[in-house]
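Exercise 3.2. Students should predict the tertiary structure of the chain below and write it as structure tokens, then compare their answer with the key that follows.

Predict this chain's 3D structure.
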Amino acid sequence: MDVVSVVTRPDRRKGRNMQLLPGPVKSLAMDLRIPFFTPEKVNAEDSVGYICGLRPDVIVVMAYGQFLKERLLFSAAPLGCVNLHMSLLPKRRGACPLERGIMAGDSETGVTAMMMDMGMDTGDILGAVRTPILPSDTLGTLRQKLAPEGADLMLRVLRSLRDGTAVRTPQDDSQATYAYEVKRQESLIEWTRSADEIERQIRALNPAPCCQTFLPPMPGAPPSAPGMLLKVYEAGVEQRPADCPPDILPGTVISMKKGPLVATGNGGALRLLLVRPEGRQNIMKGSDFSNGYSKKVPPGSRLYIGISPLFRQP
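Answer key:
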């Protein structure tokens, strides 16, 4: 099976210098000397003409970010368009299945190969691989586990399509759930939620976009001014100490020993284990943060709750 061309997104400006850089798919295609095509709109007439002109046997789609219209789906390749989706369809259709699965506390996930149709992840299933979601799994670790399994699955499916042995299983729409795109505001920690919910939120958004909170404002700052941004990459659920006041407010720092211990909703507490304060390039252990910031964030201070003025959408 030969790859006749890779179709991926155009170069984007990134970094502090806003340098125009290729995405990882284009970079790999360049390294492997595979022809590539980077249209802004894949359904534009010239884009469709280019793809049809390649005369592919099959089109493979993975996390492309644009819906393919009818001509590409049903006329461009005789074996059709096959999509690799990181969930066990029909559960978690949509843009962010792994994130939503971790947030919801799902016990397993997987990767599904399906024949694409006009709906959102509604096509017939061609094969699937299951994997458990471990209590330590993050978005990053699940992607690492599922990537090679998904590649093996796709190769098996493509061979079955070529040989005419593929089995198409219609999805049961009554069992469908949806994994909608994670909004920017959802990376902000709301300390009024339970410790379990926040811990899953942190794992679901690690490594990106990463959960965030704000340290207390600096002395002398206006009351409405948020303090330093703190990114949280790992946390552990703990019991509140026996001497913790029962009426302590969510977001209050209970202790700074071995990493900040923060009160959450429902009488819980969360130990911050890996964090990155604003202005620092590297992630640091929570215990190291405690050693360096214990005067700025003493026990009894309260982390920011709610949407900061700095966090609003532009």
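Discussion points: The CA atoms of residues 48 and 71 lie 8 Å apart. The longest strand covers residues 229-238.
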